[in-house]
């Protein structure tokens, strides 16, 4: 008896040791999306944290409150290491430092940065540095050796106040080398500079939004009270990115949590599209309390991933929201915390190949996120739809549905493909699952017309026959009646 | 008093729809109405309402079908119906209304007939419309609501022998009375709860001490 027990225990231990180790990555955050009824629906993780890269690991001493992040056309990663007054250039695989730029030759003297907050790299591989405390934008030749190209400083215009101090924070450069700068305390919009370095005007100004409640409150308060109230000033832009077509993606903080990102055309008009719920503000459910974790999402940066997909970085809850070109929320991931892969104070985000990299100013680390199969499939399917290959996207969406059958955009994607191919019944089925009224209605109308067209002859024949029969029967009955009446009269 | 479920009383529903003024008068003065049939009407209304919320096409329906509980809807409808009847009765008692409590229940229950009857065709209709054609659906529902509202107005007016103006005032007061009823119910519930907690804490104190 004892022997059997011993044997049993030994087998158990052996099984325990030899059991295949689980390969599920432990992710320090929840991944979710919102459904049609705006309920949180948890999803598989679209991205999992990869490496956390600190300055120490790279052998260049710890970063000090780094604020800016950019990826060059050759795939090099540029970090504005603000507290150390330097720009760090990393290799594409983030394993090593290409160079550290902390000084450059300005005329005949050596010049240095002072608290550079933002970096951007142009298509011609020139490095633009927002040298905040030196009140200038420094343009360098990004390759070796580092050469000064030009310095943009002291913008002159009657649009600017007399005492205006130019302190650039974030930068973007488009294909024509126009510079878009977000400056500190500049509420009028993004500052635009032509390639020659002259300030030409503001761009994408956000209109002030006043609620009826605020109007009422101001109306009943006295002049003295009004002078002590908060001023109604437009929200500032927080982050900026540019897509290959020259459209500017600019994030801002929206206390109403309805629109935290704008897509600005060259005229400065917002041309972004919103999805079915008309929301581009991050989290839909705002918990209002005194906790710093509550309130609307605080969108601090935006990055364009390609194929119309862009991601927003929320510094309040450390989440990353990804939308497609139609404004549909694809997935949400990321969170605050002390574990590897969680944020303490995220400040900037960038897309590096298929990865997302984010900068944390408190951890002084660059955190990378690798797409999982789920995330990659969604990105591919959206990319195919963006290119117009909806039929090819169906296979991807089918695979996505195997991983998450509640995903409405996947159902809509399949439904739209069926609609294009003329299979209205299947299109209706998937579009109803995806809760897309517009496209469901198109499929439904076509289906209804088909039904009517094929069945109308039978229906009309049936109705005509019935009417004829009823008419004939009533005629016969009437004749019988008149006959009997006639008979009576004849008597 | 004749049987509440007699054939005549069921056929009388038809007369309520075709000749509401006469029918409500006869309900008050010739015992043609029936409280159980009125309650059945309320129950059917609740069922039709629930069916509409679950099965109306998503083109016109924003409700999450998983959030609907038919039993909860039934009790909700009955609570509202009860509140309305009690509220109206308490107000009309003070305002020289001639209607008895059972007349109010009968009239209010019978008045729901057009609405409950139209909910089902509207639900069926919603299945064959596309976006942009919602007007047909909303017209059907709106027609039912209007008809029912007119019936309730006429019913209350007839059984209490009121003028139209007085009826409207009474209905407004009924609404206020309903709010007061809810307020008092919540208050009583809270007070009883406090007494219970008080007693329970004394009990625990005694148990821990001795």
3D structure, described in words:
The complex is a heterodimer of chains A (491) and B (210). Helices cover 29% and strands 30% of the residues of chain A. Chain A is of the alpha+beta class and 491 residues long. The model of chain A is unreliable at 20-24 (pLDDT under 50). Chain B is 79% helix and 0% strand. Chain B is globular. The mean pLDDT of chain B is 92. Chain A binds chain B through residues 37, 39, 432, 435, 437-438, 440-442, 444-445, 448, and chain B through 58-59, 62, 64, 128, 130-132.
Q: How many helices of chain A in DSSP terms?
A: 9
Strand order within the widest beta sheet of chain A? 3-27-26-25
Give, in order, the helices and strands of chain B: HHHHHHHH
The portion of residues forming beta strands of chain B comes to under 5%
Q: Average pLDDT of chain B, to the nearest integer?
A: 92
**How much helix is in the residues of chain B?**
over 70%
What keyword list fits this structure?
heterodimer, A: 491 residues, alpha+beta, four-stranded antiparallel sheet, 27 strands, globular, B: 210 residues, 8 helices, 79% helix
């Amino acid at each position: 008896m004892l022997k059997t027990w011993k044997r049993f225990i030994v087998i158990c231990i052996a099984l325990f040791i030899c059991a295949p180790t689980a390969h599920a990555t432990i992710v320090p955050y929840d991944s979710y999306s919102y459904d049609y009824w705006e309920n949180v629906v948890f999803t598989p993780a679209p991205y999992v944290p990869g490496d956390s890269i600190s300055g120490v690991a790279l052998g260049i001493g710890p970063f000090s409150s780094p604020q800016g992040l950019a990826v060059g056309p050759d795939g090099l990663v540029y970090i504005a290491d603000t507290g150390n007054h330097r720009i760090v250039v990393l290799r594409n695989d983030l394993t090593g430092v290409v160079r550290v730029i902390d000084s450059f030759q300005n005329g005949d003297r050596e010049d240095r940065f002072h608290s550079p907050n933002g970096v951007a790299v142009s298509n011609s591989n020139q490095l633009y540095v927002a040298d905040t405390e030196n009140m200038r934008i420094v343009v360098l030749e990004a390759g070796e050796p580092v050469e000064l190209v030009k310095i943009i400083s002291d913008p002159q215009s009657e649009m600017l106040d007399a005492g205006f101090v130019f302190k650039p924070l974030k930068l973007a450069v488009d294909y024509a080398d126009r510079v878009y700068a977000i400056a500190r305390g500049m509420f009028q919009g993004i500052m635009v500079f032509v390639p020659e370095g002259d300030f030409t005007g503001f761009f994408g100004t956000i209109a002030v939004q006043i609620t009826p409640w605020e109007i009422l409150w101001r109306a009943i308060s006295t002049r003295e009270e009004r002078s002590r109230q908060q001023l109604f000033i437009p929200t500032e832009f927080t982050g900026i990115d540019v897509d290959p077509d020259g459209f500017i993606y600019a994030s801002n903080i929206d206390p109403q949590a309805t629109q935290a990102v704008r897509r600005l055309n060259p005229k400065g008009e917002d041309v972004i599209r919103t999805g079915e719920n008309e929301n581009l503000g991050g989290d839909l459910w705002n918990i209002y309390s005194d906790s710093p974790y509550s309130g609307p999402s605080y969108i601090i940066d935006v990055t364009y991933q390609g194929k119309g997909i862009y991601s927003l970085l929320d510094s309040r809850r450390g989440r990353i929201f990804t939308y497609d070109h139609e404004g549909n929320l694809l997935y949400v991931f990321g969170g605050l915390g002390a574990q590897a892969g969680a944020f303490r104070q995220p400040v900037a985000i960038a897309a590096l190949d298929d990865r997302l990299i984010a900068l944390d100013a408190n951890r002084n680390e660059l955190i990378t996120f690798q797409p999982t199969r789920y995330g990659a499939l969604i990105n591919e399917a959206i990319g195919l739809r963006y290119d117009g290959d909806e039929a090819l996207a169906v296979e991807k969406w089918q695979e996505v549905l195997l991983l998450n059958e509640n995903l409405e955009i996947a159902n809509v994607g399949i439904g739209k493909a069926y609609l294009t191919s003329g299979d209205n019944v299947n299109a209706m089925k998937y579009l109803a699952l995806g809760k897309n009224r517009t496209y469901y209605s198109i499929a439904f109308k076509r289906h209804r017309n088909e039904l009517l067209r094929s069945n109308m002859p039978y229906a009309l024949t049936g109705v005509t026959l019935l009417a004829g029969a009823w008419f004939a029967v009533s005629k016969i009955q009437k004749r019988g009646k008149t006959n009997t009446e006639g008979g009576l009269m004849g008597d | 008093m004749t049987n509440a479920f007699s054939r005549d009383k069921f056929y009388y529903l038809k007369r309520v729809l075709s000749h509401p003024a006469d029918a409500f008068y006869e309900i008050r003065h010739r015992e043609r109405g029936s409280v159980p049939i009125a309650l059945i009407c309320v129950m059917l209304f609740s069922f039709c309402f629930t069916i509409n919320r679950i099965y109306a096409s998503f083109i016109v329906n924003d409700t999450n079908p998983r959030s609907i509980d038919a039993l909860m809807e039934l009790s909700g409808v009955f609570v509202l119906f009860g509140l309305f009847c009690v509220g109206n009765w308490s107000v009309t008692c003070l305002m020289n209304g001639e209607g008895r409590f059972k007349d109010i229940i009968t009239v209010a229950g019978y008045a729901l007939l057009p609405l409950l009857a139209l909910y089902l065709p509207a639900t069926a209709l919603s299945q064959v419309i596309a976006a942009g054609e919602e007007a047909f659906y909303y017209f059907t529902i709106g027609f039912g609501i209007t008809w029912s509202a007119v019936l309730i107005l006429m019913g209350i007016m007839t059984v209490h022998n009121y003028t139209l103006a007085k009826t409207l005032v009474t209905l407004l007061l009924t609404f206020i009375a309903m709010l007061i009823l809810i307020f008092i119910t919540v208050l009583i519930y809270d007070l009883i709860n406090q007494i219970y907690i008080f007693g329970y804490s004394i009990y625990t104190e005694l148990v821990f001490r001795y």
